[in-house]
DNA sequence: CCTACCGATCGGTAGG
DNA sequence: CCTACCGATCGGTAGG
């Protein structure tokens, strides 16, 4: 009957802290994620919360990691069984819309990476570095899929993969803003129309997206 | 020889506070804009700083207003003498790039509206409302310019102005992220290529941007 | 996992 | 515009 919990119980507690921490950070940012609030909300002591992470910065990094796992599970995993190239790319893009639109419980304040990226983009340190690293990984994956699509002839030869990924990112930043700030129900459809311009039947003939070899 | 300053002096002090406050908020957000830090940086007392605004929220709103004035002066004003329609729209877009790229002194952490929008988009209250109001005003102005361009035959008939403005916004969110997070020097050129796709010679034939009257 | 505590900082007020 | 102060909260530690 000691207050000391088993390893498995401790792990579950840690998961609970992280899950709620991600929700808080989604709304108030990784700075707004305070140990005191977390403790109050979960009916724990501050020391009990902090003991699982050591420092606030470690907690922030853990929240980021947890959110990355959710993103991978929600956006990447469902598309993995699709054939590489345009089909998989389109599946990822559609799942990405779903991710931003529906995960209101896990991310009540919208995508945590968008929040964290803007919050830390002008600072330095481990959190900023972690955000940058994650964004780079996803860009690389998207760009690889674009290149496969080009090789398969599903996108026009000469397509600038980085340029396309850059514009895809802009489309999703716009979607997140539209959903969070204006709660606009038409935002998903606007995003799909933007995607059609980038990936759809209209795109292949578009010279601005191909490399400037002139 | 009283410590009481004249009205003009008080105004100048207020401007100094606001100028530095905008710089701080650009990096650390409108929540990170604390009265104590402002006072220390400016060699004043906290009460002296707060006296100009009353509450922190009023200070945040004043910083937002000040940033809006800078945005208008930098992005809109230089384009005002251009003929309405596509020419003015293009001038605004180019000035917008300059605004994000060069104003490192006034906005060391990037565009304050992008920061504030993401910071407050999941909350409620006067600050969030002010951010939303400003974004709506700029969108309306951009959309009006698009419609003029359509009426002049500079953009294809049937162009969905809101859709175009939505995608323009995404392009600039991407630019801000690219500059702040990765300091990418090629970001401006990527943005211009995106603009070419939306506004340039390649755009008129693009069916995805016109209304779906099917 | 807890209680009890630390110094620092927060926004804000009183009074001049 | 200042000094002096308020209660609340911050991240974090000691000790169990």
UniProtKB/TrEMBL annotation, chains A, B:
Organism phylogeny: Bacteria, Bacillati, Actinomycetota, Actinomycetes, Kitasatosporales
InterPro entries: Homeodomain-like_sf, HTH_TetR, Tet_transcr_reg_TetR-rel_C_sf, TetR_C
DNA-binding span(s): 34-53
Name of the protein described by the UniProt record: TetR/AcrR family transcriptional regulator
Family matches, as SUPFAM superfamilies: Homeodomain-like (SSF46689), Tetracyclin repressor-like, C-terminal domain (SSF48498)
Domain HTH tetR-type: 11-71
Signal peptide: none
Keyword Lyase part of the UniProt annotation: no
Taxonomic source organism: Kitasatospora arboriphila
């Amino acid at each position: 009957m000691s207050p000391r919990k088993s390893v498995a119980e401790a792990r579950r507690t840690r998961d609970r802290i992280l899950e709620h921490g991600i929700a808080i950070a989604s709304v108030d940012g990784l700075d707004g994620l305070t140990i005191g609030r977390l403790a109050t909300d979960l009916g724990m002591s501050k020391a009990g919360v902090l003991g699982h992470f050591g420092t606030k910065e470690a907690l922030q990094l853990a929240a980021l990691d947890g959110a990355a796992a959710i993103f991978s599970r929600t956006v990447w995993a469902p598309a993995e069984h699709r054939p590489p190239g345009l089909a998989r790319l389109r599946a990822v893009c559609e799942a990405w819309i779903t991710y931003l639109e529906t995960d209101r419980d896990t991310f009540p304040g919208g995508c945590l990476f968008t929040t964290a990226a803007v919050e830390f983009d002008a600072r330095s340190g481990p959190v900023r570095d972690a955000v940058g690293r994650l964004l780079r990984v996803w860009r690389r994956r998207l760009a690889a899929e674009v290149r496969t699509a080009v090789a398969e002839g599903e996108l026009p030869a000469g397509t600038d993969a980085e340029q396309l990924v850059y514009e895809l990112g802009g489309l999703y930043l716009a979607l997140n803003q539209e959903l969070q700030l204006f709660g606009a129900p038409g935002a998903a459809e606007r995003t799909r129309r933007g995607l059609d311009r980038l990936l759809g039947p209209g795109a292949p003939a578009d010279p601005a997206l191909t490399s400037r070899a002139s």
